[in-house]
Design a protein that fits this description.
Number of domains: 2
CATH topology of the largest domain: Rossmann fold
Structural class: alpha/beta
CATH superfamily of the largest domain: NAD(P)-binding Rossmann-like Domain
Largest sheet: 6 strands, parallel
CATH class of the largest domain: Alpha Beta
Order of helices and strands: EHEHEHEHEHEHEHHHEEEEEEEHHH
């Protein structure tokens, strides 16, 4: 057990790293000490914006800081493995954004390196911490819905913030990789990590053919060994902001959870809203305006858990092995 706050370093300076920085401000036992980005000026600007005392444009600098106990990787997917191996060698605990990496070989390298170095490899799947989904799982676990029969989860918006997601060589795929990984881990978590015996997917590129060779719409169907069926709907072609919802159908009941709509303010504006919700685009007319958006997604709760794992040497609820299992399903699809 540590007798100090967990020193945190951020890798990345774009959209998801901003979420990480904001979420960690909620965590009493965490202290963000440094940020690293190889893009000229980005780390310095990010550090200034978030009140972070140190910034680097090379990985060696942040790894050399003995005060840093945990690194959070919000860099492009194709460098997740490289950074993880270097961080493990430096003795840092690691949180990796989804997807874990680009392929199964990289996943095995990352897991093995962290195990040999005696550091934790934690997989940043926030749906396992989203308050509404935690309550949904509680209903299932207490037996209120009976035995689960069908699980559904969907995430839809009009496309990624960062350019690298559109490049399949750097991202590893399209929307099935980018957002399908959320659904797969959600289903595994909801269903007690029961083994998956079959995977089916329908992938298409319908709207963004000028931007990507990857899919921008995906339907993924999983069959678990305990008889549960799960269906994911993922899209990069929905305008008007993020949509994130789930359903659990059981033998004794059913439950619906909509992460955003139930926690928003229905707003009409002739001028448009300054910020309504992630990827909202045009907000002239009706929109739904979020409050405490990152909390509703579960990011602060996720990082509170990961920091606790490092500080008190606990096993993470979502690990590198979970990230590997998700990739196995995505590649099967």
């Amino acid at each position: 057990m540590m007798d100090k706050k967990v020193g945190v370093g951020l890798i990345g300076s774009q959209f998801v790293s901003s979420i990480h920085a904001d979420a960690l401000k909620w965590v009493h036992d965490a202290e963000v000490l440094a940020v690293m980005s190889p893009s000229a000026g980005h780390a310095e600007a990010f550090a200034k914006a978030h009140g972070i005392p140190h910034h680097f444009d090379a990985l060696d600098g942040i790894l050399a800081m003995p005060e840093i106990d945990m690194l959070v990787i919000g860099a492009p997917n194709h460098v997740h493995c490289e950074i993880t191996l270097a961080a493990a060698k430096a003795g840092k605990h690691i949180v990796v954004e989804k997807p874990l990496c680009l392929n199964m070989a990289e996943a095995d390298l990352m897991i093995d390196a962290c195990r040999k170095a005696g550091v934790k490899l934690m997989y940043a799947e926030e749906l396992c911490f989203t308050p509404k989904y935690v309550r949904l799982k509680g209903l299932l676990d207490e037996g209120a819905l009976g035995r689960p029969v069908l699980l559904k989860q969907s995430e839809k918006h009009d496309g990624p913030h960062s350019a690298h997601f559109w490049d399949v060589e750097r991202s590893g795929g399209g929307v099935a990789m980018d957002m399908g990984c959320h659904a797969v881990q959600f289903f595994r978590w909801m269903n007690g990590n029961n083994p998956i015996k079959s995977v089916y997917a329908q992938l298409s590129t319908d709207v963004h053919k000028d931007k990507t060779k990857g899919d921008d719409n995906a339907i993924i169907i999983l069959e678990f060994e305990n008889g549960v069926t799960a269906m994911a709907e993922e899209s990069w072609s929905k305008p008007g902001g993020m949509d994130d919802r789930a359903e659990v159908h059981g033998t004794e009941g059913l439950a619906y959870a909509d992460v955003l709509q139930g926690n928003s303010i229905q707003t009409y504006s002739k001028k448009g809203v300054g910020y309504a919700v992630e990827k909202a685009g045009n907000t002239v007319g009706w929109s739904y305006t979020m409050y405490e958006e990152n909390w509703n997604y579960g990011f602060p709760q996720e990082f509170e858990h990961f920091v606790d794992c490092v500080k008190n040497d606990r096993e993470p609820m979502v690990s590198g092995e979970d990230g590997r299992a998700v990739l196995e399903v995505i590649f099967a699809a």
